[in-house]
Amino acid sequence: MIFRGSQLAMVAAYFVVLVAAGTVGYEMIEGWSWADSFYMTIITITAVGYHEVHPLSETGRIFTVFMLVGGLTGLGAWFALITASLVRMDLRKTYERRKTMKKAGRMKDHVIVCGGGNMGQQITRELGGAGTPCAVIESDRDAIESLREINPEVAVIEDDATRDRVLREAGIERARGLVTCLSADTDNLFVCLSARDLNARLVIVARAEGKSATAKMYRAGADHVVSPNKTGAVWVASVLVRPSVASFMDTSEKGRHLSRHIDQATVGTDSKVVGRTLGEARVQDVTGLLVIAIHKHGQPYEEATFNPDASTRLEAGDDLIVLGDDEQVERLRAYVG
């Protein structure tokens, strides 16, 4: 809260008592009506400088002086309360930002999410479920509150993601990836350009609407471009045309009760499976996972080998795309990492 309830109640009670005393005092001293007495009290304690309602007696003038002093005292307390509350609010925001900056400054190999709307919130939830640290850049206060409800520990930088300074504060030089899902394609395009310039090794995923925007995102430096409308349309069509497959994929998402999902593990440089074939590595026997694709290191993602045969040779940097649960995936990463 901006105001402390007890202090606000005390100031309000002070003014109520002062107005009541002034109204009764003018009525008893000057014999005025209750309306005139109330009006005279208000213009006196607020020091607006209006003329008296009626000529004052000597006793009435002395009473007016006391009312004026009481009014100025109350107004001083009211303005002091407002000033202190604004200072507290500013200090709280400064403390929260400094705390976030410290957290972001310690991050390494994290993901920066630009935009905390519906898509950004879902991405944050998925990254948290995968144990991947992330920093979110968002300027809307309501979206920030929603993000903190999802994960109270998430590092949220309240600022404009299109500024280079803010991207540096989020640790872009140390980040492994960046997702820009701002509402405007022009903002996402600007973030892609800035991010690629600040970190040439960064994996950038951008949101875009339409073919022209998608092409521009790639030219701006995005590694992957996602169109929510296109993805949603493909999924709706899959539900209608291939309902069994769609239902299986639906239950394979993170957080579903079957806990099985599609994940990946990268073959390490010193891994014991380097140079072996998929059959010799015996991935399914060791981990229980089903290898559904292999993305060879250095090749475009669209050239990944689906349903690889046992003779496929594994090299350092290859990504194994697998289907299984979290425990099996961790076992695989320990085995091939």
Account of the 3D structure:
Helix 8 (211-220) links the parallel strand 5 (203-207) and strand 6. This protein has 337 residues and is α/β, with parallel strands linked by helices. The relative contact order is 0.06. The longest helix has 49 residues, at 58-106. It contains 13 helices and 10 strands. The two termini are 50 Å apart. The protein has helices at residues 5-30, 34-45, 58-106, 118-129, 141-150, 164-169, 185-198, 211-220, 228-241, 243-251, 278-281, 283-287, 326-336; strands at residues 111-114, 134-138, 155-158, 177-180, 203-207, 224-226, 261-266, 290-295, 305-306, 319-324. A 6-stranded parallel β-sheet has the order 3-2-1-4-5-6, with helices on both faces.
Give the helix/strand layout.
Elements: H1 5-30, H2 34-45, H3 58-106, E1 111-114, H4 118-129, E2 134-138, H5 141-150, E3 155-158, H6 164-169, E4 177-180, H7 185-198, E5 203-207, H8 211-220, E6 224-226, H9 228-241, H10 243-251, E7 261-266, H11 278-281, H12 283-287, E8 290-295, E9 305-306, E10 319-324, H13 326-336
Parallel strand pairs: 1-2, 1-4, 2-3, 4-5, 5-6
Antiparallel strand pairs: 7-10, 8-9, 8-10
Helix pairs in contact: 1-2, 1-3, 4-5, 7-8, 9-10
Features:
337 residues, elongated, 54% helix, four-stranded antiparallel beta sheet, alpha/beta
Q: Count the helices. How many?
A: 13
Query: Whole-number radius of gyration?
Result: 33 Å
Which structural class fits the helix and strand makeup?
alpha/beta
Largest sheet: 6 strands, parallel
